[in-house]
């Protein structure tokens, strides 16, 4: 019941000949019973990592490395071509509204998921699990509020009792109260034994709810820092993490300098220094260095 990403590199060739560096040597462990939050600015590669975990990379993607989902029945290589989606690993999509078909009730869509997966669950049982009155399932998606639709999507993800849950911006369109409910739901899934990868750029909610056990910070296709969430929030080691946290309203709303880089044909060097020349940190090949249960990407000092 865990997720292990090892040395995952994903390259997306574009028609114009350039190549998007969507993930570069990413290694990440999400043990059972825990939530790891993957954060970073728009376009840094978070959703590509989610797609890789679900073996749903865009056509033409080149990848190396491995992703293993450990289930009660054993370890499963997600790139081996065996069916596993929904059963061993499930995705909670960003927008339930676009995920659900408008012409059928929530119940009929949930029932279809249950049947396809051969799950012993019932749609009423799943509705209750996610805090929905079962009668809400008889609505069409447009009759549901954003928060209710999102809970239907979570119910669908839970239908197969997955060992691994990947939630890609599951609270993007929700207000604070509903955000906290959906995050609370993911917490319950983890407490029941799932390994949860929560992708979000809503750091404020993470700080407020304390829902994440661990934090992984991504920048320009690479992990910059990982560690216990509370420790990283209190004492970020990498400049990028520090700047990202400094942009929070509770920490002074200091905007990050510049804008995120294009991910086409990135150098092997660490690129955050390009946005922060005053840090006097140069590029040069970098590495993620492990110190206890934390890790951070090293930068070479300018001599
Ligand atoms: N199908 C695709 N073909 C080519 N490039 C893509 C494709 N999907 C994503 N990319 C590129 O890969 C990089 C990573 O994208 P990704 O969607 O993973 O970012 P993200 O961190 O999830 O951003 P956001 O927070 O906005 O969702 C971006 O540069 C994006 O433009
Ligand atoms: Ni994304």
TrEMBL record:
The keyword Ribonucleoprotein does not apply. Keywords: ATP-binding, Cell membrane, Ion transport, Membrane, Nickel, Nickel transport, Nucleotide-binding, Translocase, Transport. Transmembrane segments: none annotated. This is Nickel import system ATP-binding protein NikD. PANTHER family: NICKEL ABC TRANSPORTER, ATP-BINDING PROTEIN, OLIGOPEPTIDE TRANSPORT ATP-BINDING PROTEIN APPD. InterPro entries: AAA+_ATPase, ABC_Ni/Peptide_Import, ABC_transporter-like_ATP-bd, ABC_transporter-like_CS, Oligopep_ABC_C, P-loop_NTPase. It catalyses: Ni(2+)(out) + ATP + H2O = Ni(2+)(in) + ADP + phosphate + H(+). Residues 3-245 form the ABC transporter domain. The complex is composed of two ATP-binding proteins (NikD and NikE), two transmembrane proteins (NikB and NikC) and a solute-binding protein (NikA). The lineage of its organism: Bacteria, Bacillati, Actinomycetota, Actinomycetes, Micrococcales. Belongs to the ABC transporter superfamily. It is found in: Cell membrane. One of its GO terms (molecular function) is ATP binding. It is a peripheral membrane protein. It comes from Oerskovia merdavium. Its EC number is 7.2.2.11. It comes from the Bacteria.
């Amino acid at each position: 019941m865990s997720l292990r990403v090892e040395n995952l590199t994903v390259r997306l060739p574009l028609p114009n000949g350039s190549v998007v560096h969507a993930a570069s040597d990413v290694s990440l462990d999400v043990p059972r019973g825990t939530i790891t939050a993957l954060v970073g600015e728009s376009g840094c590669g978070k959703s590509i990592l989610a797609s890789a975990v679900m073996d749903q990379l865009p056509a033409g993607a080149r990848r190396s490395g491995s992703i293993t989902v450990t289930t009660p029945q054993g370890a499963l290589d997600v790139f081996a071509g065996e069916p596993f989606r929904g059963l061993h690993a499930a995705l909670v999509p960003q927008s339930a509204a676009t995920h659900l078909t408008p012409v059928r009730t929530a119940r009929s869509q949930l029932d279809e998921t249950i049947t396809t997966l051969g799950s012993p669950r019932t749609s009423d049982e799943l509705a209750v699990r996610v805090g929905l009155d079962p009668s809400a399932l008889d609505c069409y998606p447009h009759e549901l509020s954003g928060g209710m639709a999102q809970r239907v999507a979570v119910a669908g993800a839970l239908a197969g009792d997955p060992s691994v849950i990947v939630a890609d911006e599951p609270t993007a369109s929700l207000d604070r109260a509903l955000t906290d409910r959906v995050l609370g739901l993911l917490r319950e899934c983890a407490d029941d034994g799932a390994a949860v990868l929560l992708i979000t750029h809503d750091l404020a909610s993470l700080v407020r709810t304390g829902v994440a056990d661990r934090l992984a910070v991504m920048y320009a296709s690479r992990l910059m820092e990982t560690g216990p969430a509370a420790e990283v929030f209190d004492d970020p080691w990498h400049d990028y993490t520090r700047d990202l946290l400094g942009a929070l309203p509770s920490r002074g709303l200091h905007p990050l300098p510049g804008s995120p880089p294009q991910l086409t044909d990135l150098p092997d060097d660490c690129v955050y220094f390009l946005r922060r020349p005053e840090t006097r940190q140069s590029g040069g090949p970098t590495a993620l260095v492990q110190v206890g249960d934390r890790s951070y990407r090293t930068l070479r000092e300018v001599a």
